[in-house]
Design a protein that fits this description.
Layout lengths: L10 H12 L12 H6 L1 H14 L8 E6 L5 E6 L2 H19 L15 H18 L5
Antiparallel strand pairs: 1-2
Helix pairs in contact: 1-3, 1-4, 3-4
Length: about 140
């Protein structure tokens, strides 16, 4: 009898997500496991992520709260996920991002890959100049 998984997640997707996470500086999360410690048992750790995600039993652990000082004497609290949770998040991101990106308007710039506030300002400026010059009449 073969057990079927709730979700079809390719093991290579988990491995490639790990490689993407590895390229960034990764701080330890609430479990205090560093990237080096995660890599020490890489095969087993990636298998656990894949198994839990594909069976629908993955549940992300709590995040580690870290206070980052701001210029205005306040602090900004950031949540640092565990290395394993970053890998799981990257798997999901890579699966759903292409589908969701197709739903956005071309002029939507917030929190999108390859787009920024600077891009939005640039296109707005370009369109303003184009409109201004097109609608100017000689006096």
């Amino acid at each position: 009898m073969s057990a079927t998984k709730s979700y079809t997640i390719d093991k290579w997707s988990v491995y490639n997500a790990y490689k993407a996470v590895k390229t960034n500086a990764v701080a330890a999360g609430v479990d205090r496991q560093s990237l080096a410690e995660f890599e020490a048992d890489l095969r087993s750790n990636l298998y656990k992520i894949w198994n839990r995600m594909s069976s629908g039993t993955y549940f992300p652990p709590a995040v580690k709260a870290v206070a980052i000082p701001k210029k205005s004497s306040r602090e900004r609290i950031l949540g640092i996920p565990t290395v394993a949770d970053r890998v799981a998040q990257m798997v999901v991101k890579r699966e759903i991002e292409p589908v969701i990106e197709a739903c956005f308007a071309p002029d939507s710039y917030g929190y999108r890959p390859g787009k920024s506030a600077l891009n939005a300002v640039g296109i707005t400026r370009e369109r303003c100049w184009r409109y201004y010059f097109r609608h100017q009449r000689p006096v």
